[in-house]
Amino acid sequence: MDIKLLRIDSRLVHGQVANNWAGALGAEAILAVSDGAANDELRKTLMLQTGGGKVKVHVLTVAKAARVYKNPKYAALKAVIVVETPADIVRLLDLGVEAPEVNVGGMTFKQGTKALSQAVYVSDEDVKVFQEIDSRGITQYIQQVPSSGRAGLMESLKSKGFIG
């Protein structure tokens, strides 16, 4: 599989992903990878309609996404993979998915999180997971849409005092 973008976005598939990212990167498919969404028929149905015919949307569990990634049948597929949390990235990596970088596009505010950027709120646990991803040599950056600037995630965590 040709992963055009591996993105963390708690909303999974929406206009920024379906229209901006997939189009700019020439993706043929968006894989919304979430155990919760894959097992929630309403969420799944809504996301499947988001592609709008331009790009095919698939909603998969983490385990199934890893199997699809490894399947030679999909070796040439140009895909955007979107997960809800940094922990899902680690699960994909542990299951053999390879990616040189991770885009952190949006992590919505929840109880126990703090603002890292306008669209990214992180918990202490998220910070630990980002450090784990960094320790594997994978570049992580914050960028909402293709036309906006990139900010290094680890540098942002340091500058905001999340890590020393």
TrEMBL record:
Principal localization reads cytoplasm
Q: Name one Pfam family in it.
A: PTSIIB_sorb
User: Where do the PTS EIIB type-4 domain residues begin and end?
Assistant: 1-164
Cellular component annotations (GO), alphabetically ordered: cytoplasm
- GO BP: any one term: phosphoenolpyruvate-dependent sugar phosphotransferase system
**According to its UniProt record, where is this protein located?**
Cytoplasm
Q: One GO molecular function term?
A: protein-N(PI)-phosphohistidine-sugar phosphotransferase activity
Recite the UniProt keywords alphabetically: Cytoplasm, Kinase, Phosphotransferase system, Sugar transport, Transferase, Transport
Q: What is this protein called?
A: PTS system, mannose/fructose/sorbose family, IIB component
